[in-house]
Amino acid sequence: MDLKTASALRRLRLVSAPEAVSFLLLLVCSVLKRTTDFNAVPVMGMVHGVLFVLYVLFWADAWNRAKWPLRTAALYFVLSVLPAGGFFAERRLRREAEDAVIASRARREGVVSA
Fold first, then answer.
1. Which residues form the DUF3817 domain (predicted)?
2. Nearest residue to 12 (alpha-carbon basis) of 44, 4, 1, 49
């Protein structure tokens, strides 16, 4: 994996968890808006919207650079629209990055995997 691909995956991973948190907070704010006088939906809506747009941009870049199959790319996109799906995406992306680092080190050291 080259440096640009690793950077694209890292950016997607780093925005996944905050996007999931903002989605959950937006849901909580929506409930509070309807049950109390507290209305933070406009602010949380904007925060979540910005994070979601960043997620989609980083997702498209990662898909292009990592050459994911359609199924993998679709999975990461679906995770972005599910509440708490970003947490699963972050964990899966971290595992994918760790596997890529291990494979890169093995290739550099000339170790053949079985």
1. 9-95
2. 4
Token pair, residue 109, equals 């050291």
CA 74 to chain centre: 12
Counting the structural domains of the chain, the total is 1
Give the DSSP letter of residue 69: -
* Rounded distance between C-alpha atoms, residue 35 and residue 60, angstroms: 38
Q: Is residue 114 included in any domain, yes or no?
A: no
- 92 lies in some domain: yes
- pLDDT tens for each residue of 21-78: 999 999 999 999 999 999 999 999 999 999 999 999 999 999 999 999 999 999 999 9
Q: d(Cα 7, Cα 39) in Å, to the nearest integer?
A: 37
Instruction: Give the residue from 20, 21, 44 showing the smallest Cα distance to 32.
Output: 44
* Parent domain of 104: 3-109
